[in-house]
């Protein structure tokens, strides 16, 4: 759930109550953005973390590294987590909710849950992971990893070539709306990404279509980038969206693809996601050891043990299958693997290093071949690809001018002069006359026929048609073809209707905007359902406009007499049993002064039993929570419930 949407669902009163929990922040009353935008500042979150109680740190870590994009349901919360009983979990969660760091959500049928908005999660994880120095798992191997051919992942090249082939010849759909194997094979022929590294990810996709896992992944990327359009009969490329995409910088392009991979395809396994967080926090231009990363990551003392990833060889194999291999196959990282370790290096566009400048010049040769250097601007290469044939051999891409390619380009809006001008502007060597003559000759052959967009106006009888022909004002719009029919240029249609209306003709009305949009949607609709099946985990939940109070942390607390937690005193045996039973029920600690103990102790009550006529309280002390203790009620001198600071 997004930050802006979450905050927009809170009332002014709730926002003010949250603001009141942050009196020390100087800019909390700023006018721009949402009133709580200061919670997105890393420095302020770091100061909050330093003031958190151990329970608050544990719950926040649990959210960030275990729950992540899921919803923590009330039932899950009631189970607690190892080392933190449900009552203390609820209390710490209440504190975080009051500070505006965790939000309450509810389904329509009443199921309650808790979330941290996506953007806030990202900032928080950055704050915590910053405390783990990446230098601790950076290494200097004797030999460097494989050199980078491009500053961006291989995935960018595969998507480029896939778009090129679909742009040249859209994918035809069957009557059932599925794709044919021969079309998929044609458009993915030059893609180098294979399916094997993704087999362990558990990716689910439509089995009715004739594509395999790697092809489904590529199609899914195109859909989420808004580049693939679906009609009743074909899939084709959205030309404007493609132009915008290839004008994107390599860094932004790579980060966008990485985000799609992480949220759509990578398993939501908390350990894998946590390791990836550590890897992303080390996005410098260096080489890193995966085993050292695990050792360094598990040294993060503020994370409970059950949240930290394992450090055995089994986990190394799990991470290799679910994380390292997919990242390597898509080209986000380069790896060097041994039996005991994996070294990796991020592709340059994923790091903070300065990327090489791209060039907009190519070699247009007399033999109609266009040589495109590796560092050519993708926006320029995309334009070249739109009016030439592509050939990929041994990873080298070549372009060839042909009559067929020029015809396709002209059909998609290019003209001969634009093609010649583009080649002239971007060629490092002057265009040869023979090449220009060849393009012009092809253009003459292609442009022997022309067409224009027109509408056919049909009259009910010849008399009406003659009236329209004889009216001077209509002669500028109408071209008569036969006794009853007229051709009208599409651009003149609205003006014709206006003139006909002025003269009392019941002219056919144009489609309304809504009807036109509906018809257009049926014919040319962006793909509505994605290839890979994965939906948002928070679907169906809505943010509740609530500010938590005492009952949220300890249900039934308001029914407890204040004297039980305000005063440390002696009670009658019946009242004493009631007080202890209520402490067990609500899971509140007890402060006890007993005969066999020299000083008062804080006692976590678990059960009260009658043994041979004597009431005995069992539980554990704060000093040694793993060791069971018991106290006879007859030995208790003074007692009170220990309530958190929020309630006292």
Task: Write up this protein.
It is a single chain. Helices cover 40% and strands 16% of the residues. It is α+β, with helices and mostly antiparallel strands and 648 residues long. The strands form six sheets. It has a five-stranded antiparallel β-sheet. Helix 4 (54-67) crosses helix 6 (86-98) and helix 11 runs antiparallel to helix 16 (378-385). The chain is elongated, with a radius of gyration of 35 Å. The two termini are 34 Å apart. The model is unreliable at 299-304 and 515-528 (pLDDT under 50).
Set out the fold topology.
Elements: H1 3-8, H2 12-19, H3 42-51, H4 54-67, E1 72-73, H5 74-79, H6 86-98, E2 103-107, E3 112-115, H7 118-129, E4 138-139, H8 154-168, E5 171-172, H9 181-187, H10 213-224, E6 228-231, E7 234-237, H11 239-246, H12 250-264, H13 270-280, E8 287-289, H14 290-297, H15 313-330, E9 333-337, E10 342-346, E11 363-364, E12 369-371, H16 378-385, E13 389-393, E14 396-400, H17 403-411, H18 416-426, H19 433-446, E15 454-458, H20 462-470, H21 472-475, E16 478-480, E17 485-489, H22 493-502, H23 513-523, E18 524-526, E19 541-543, H24 550-553, H25 563-566, H26 573-586, E20 590-594, E21 601-611, E22 614-621, E23 628-632, E24 636-641
Antiparallel strand pairs: 1-3, 2-3, 2-19, 4-8, 5-7, 6-7, 6-18, 8-10, 9-10, 11-12, 12-14, 13-14, 15-17, 16-17, 20-21, 20-24, 21-22, 22-23
